Amino acid sequence: MANMKRIAELAGVSLGTVSHVLNGTARVREPLRERVLNAVHETGYQPSQLARGLRRDKTNILAMIVPDILNPFFPGVVRGAEDVAFANGFRLVLCNTDNDHKKELVHLNALQTYLPSGLIVIPSDFSDLTAQAESYRKSGAAVVCVDRLPRNWAGDSVTSDNAVGAFNATSYLIDLGHRRLAVITGPLHLTNSQDRLKGFKRAVRQAGLEIAPAYAQEATFDRAGGYAKTKILLRLLPRPTAILACNDMIALGALMAVREEKLNCPDDISIIGFDGLDVTETTTPQLSSVYQSSYQLGAEAVQLALDRFADTSSPVRHIVLKTELKIRESVAPPPKLESANGTGSAKRLRLAAVRA
Amino acid sequence: MANMKRIAELAGVSLGTVSHVLNGTARVREPLRERVLNAVHETGYQPSQLARGLRRDKTNILAMIVPDILNPFFPGVVRGAEDVAFANGFRLVLCNTDNDHKKELVHLNALQTYLPSGLIVIPSDFSDLTAQAESYRKSGAAVVCVDRLPRNWAGDSVTSDNAVGAFNATSYLIDLGHRRLAVITGPLHLTNSQDRLKGFKRAVRQAGLEIAPAYAQEATFDRAGGYAKTKILLRLLPRPTAILACNDMIALGALMAVREEKLNCPDDISIIGFDGLDVTETTTPQLSSVYQSSYQLGAEAVQLALDRFADTSSPVRHIVLKTELKIRESVAPPPKLESANGTGSAKRLRLAAVRA
DNA sequence: CTGCTATTCTGAAAGCATTCACGTAGCCGG
DNA sequence: CCGGCTACGTGAATGCTTTCAGAATAGCAG
Fold first, then answer.
1. Mean pLDDT of all residues in A11-40
2. Backbone angles phi, psi at A152, to 5 degrees
3. CATH code for residues B56-160+295-322
């Protein structure tokens, strides 16, 4: 690959001039400018990002840290981030933490030696990024947290309005007539889980309902978690008539458990998930869900990083994206009649009532 | 951040010695060695990857190019790649092409200026990477193609055994008694689509069956494609009793179309997908699929790149991964009786037969 | 204790682009 | 025609690490 020196020779100018033409850092008269540009075209020269980064103390790399790209929620975030990054001439280095804070730290430390312009991070469990973020900021990199916040986070962030999303979903169920609501939250040390639970509780309180503690279960954010906790919920007396699952994976597990118990969703029990993944459209029944735009989360995060990058001193920003309740087939009014012990399917019960 | 000079001062040695200790490039006696290591620990010094890359003409970055991380098949590949990369001290720069060869070229050109050690690429549509690959190889970077191959690809690659996978699935259907098989392929300019179609045809031929051209439809690799082509297939007379969908998204679309036509899967029509995505477990009926390990695809690709990297001259390798036919609920023997026009559900027909 | 070889260390050069202090040419007003 | 200013260009210094040629030291044999 040609280097700048060669371009300078070809164009018959000095190194500095080539640099100025390339970066627009100084005025260069047309004839010279053109000669430089020609030389660049002829050779297909592209400046070494390494040398440039070394000199400028900054690269056009953005470091992106996510728990696990295999979790179907995260690819959207990554894609949104990559698109905005690419549009602005930045590249994304992607790292998975598996929600392991140690691994997160390893990545954080290692990545800094590439002098990225920014760091977009979906914090791992029990993450505390204060020190690292400080270090990045000191080196001139913007740090933005996405989706959930580490403890004591005081920097820029982009999240969905988890509380309002959960509130709306819960209210919707209540409006349908549900009174015995259950919620399966994600891990409660995560701020998004906390906020969704808050939204749920607020809706419940506002409706003057009481929810016994057993009706709020904490699960891991996956199908297995949703399945296990739903099994528990379905054994409670009286059985809940609706479940707010705090993400779609949990909702999927809930649906499996419901089916396995020979209950019918939505006749016996309504389910609303959270995230609005594509998979909610292909289940039977189709899952209702609080949709949030993972893409936008990532896109806004990078935009925020770029803004921060341009203006280090402006006040911290905390972008909160709207959610949208998508009601599909998994929601219905609560069963009209029920046996006292709360077992059996609503359909059967309805039949029993007719006979009686 | 401290630099090497500072470490040298702290340890009272020369720059060269620090470098040698850090890289093990020369023998350094214990006392000095220790002083250097201490200084490194105390300062938390980490060598600048930029300077190192600049000097070595190579970074520990791997460039990874995928069509679209939002396509649920690709995150697995990326994750597999990242894990192996990380384990070997490499980082992944992720780029999406949207299957646009132009965008692919832009990424390819831009990424080279970071002097990556390797390039892992899932080629876009109509990709021809010969020239770029050559350029990368010339700069000492390993290039590995994954999942599908560009035209005239002569380099290392990792793919699944698409032909055998499709052959097995098709044979399974034939063994169940199906005679009127249909296939919905992906875009036929993609080698994986071609291979799956070949496998299908081979199984058909081997069973002595004939498939009219209309029973082989080409679709985009998504739900919409599967849906549209299935609609067409369901209108054919006689109607096919089984569909091999060449990926799970197509299968999902097929399932939707079947349901919409008030047909029952698997009673009226069997469906087998390809890829074995998680989503196949959450549909009703659960989708049978030819499972391939996207994770392994990515992991092997990076391993191959690292190997190539260590030995530039060894012969080109072409890793082909096994697939596994996962039969779930979407497959059954063909309906026993059918009306001549091929409409109506098998169940109804069976009832009619009983009455007669 | 001397002479040599083998072993360690050192320091400068190289890799490439950016930037800053400084030189030069052109132009205006006087 | 000259002083002086503006607008352009120049090239050396810089950022950080690796590597190579060569200096210094250690160790051993005689």
1. 92
2. 55, 35
3. 3.40.50.2300
